[in-house]
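hey
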């Protein structure tokens, strides 16, 4: 059956690699509202949205720690930029500790974007790339850069002790940084990244631990904690309910 969701993703220019994960669009091509579940994935999303029932608006969504319900209305146009956490300090120059599991509406002319920019996704990506490039910092704290390199390269399968030793940053400093900047602990963030790394395995029908979970029981418990359902239910993904599974490419 043909998907009711249209999804397209573009990877960023190499100059943005430390800060941007992807640009993407999402449309509901059916005539009915689409109820979906958004799973925690460790990203910070900037949404540019407009539909027949809602005016153009821009929303910054913080890091999610639990599954969230969302409704995609028919013909709703959404372009988005998924940022890596480093972008919060260096691109947005703020913190999002108060945005755990929620978002905030930004000014309608944020970064000089408007409804007209939702007419062409490629042009949107070009404009966003140029804007972010203009905001790139001259220097980055190498401890923070190393910290996220370690988390991503291990798919979250690491300890705070290991992160501390390899990034030359104390455990107290790491946890203070995560709590003050993002509103959650470093360990909680690592668990989200490990959970996200299991998406592809689950979609392939591998319903057993692949990412250094202690055992099958621990794997199921962690998946339920972050998705609300068992790995088997994620695999079924009835009615394309789990949005990240609906848009995940099969390998």
């Amino acid at each position: 059956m043909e998907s009711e969701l249209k999804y397209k993703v573009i990877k960023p220019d190499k100059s943005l690699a430390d800060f941007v994960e992807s640009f993407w669009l999402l449309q509901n091509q059916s005539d009915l509202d689409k109820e979906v579940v958004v799973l925690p994935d460790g990203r910070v999303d900037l949404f540019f949205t407009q539909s027949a029932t809602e005016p153009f608006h821009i929303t910054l969504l913080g890091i999610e720690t639990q599954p969230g319900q969302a409704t995609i209305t028919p013909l709703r146009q959404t372009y988005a930029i998924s940022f890596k956490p480093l972008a919060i300090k260096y691109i947005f120059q703020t913190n999002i500790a108060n945005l755990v599991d929620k978002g905030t509406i930004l000014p309608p002319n944020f970064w000089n974007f408007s409804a007209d920019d939702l007419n062409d996704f490629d042009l949107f990506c070009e404009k966003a790339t140029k804007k972010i490039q203009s905001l790139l910092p001259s220097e980055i704290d190498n401890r923070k850069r190393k910290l996220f390199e370690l988390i991503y390269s291990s798919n979250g399968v690491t300890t705070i002790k290991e992160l501390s030793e390899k990034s030359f940053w104390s455990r107290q400093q790491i946890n203070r940084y995560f709590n003050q900047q993002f509103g959650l602990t470093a360990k909680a963030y690592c668990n989200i990244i490990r959970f996200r790394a299991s998406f592809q395995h689950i979609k392939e029908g591998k319903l057993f631990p692949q990412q250094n979970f202690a055992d099958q029981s621990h794997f199921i418990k962690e998946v339920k904690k972050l998705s609300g359902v068992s790995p088997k239910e994620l695999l079924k993904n009835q009615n394309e309910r789990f949005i990240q599974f609906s848009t995940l490419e099969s390998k």
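The CA atoms of residues 9 and 232 lie 27 Å apart. The beta strands are 5-10, 20-28, 34-38, 44-50, 57-61, 68-72, 77-83, 103-106.
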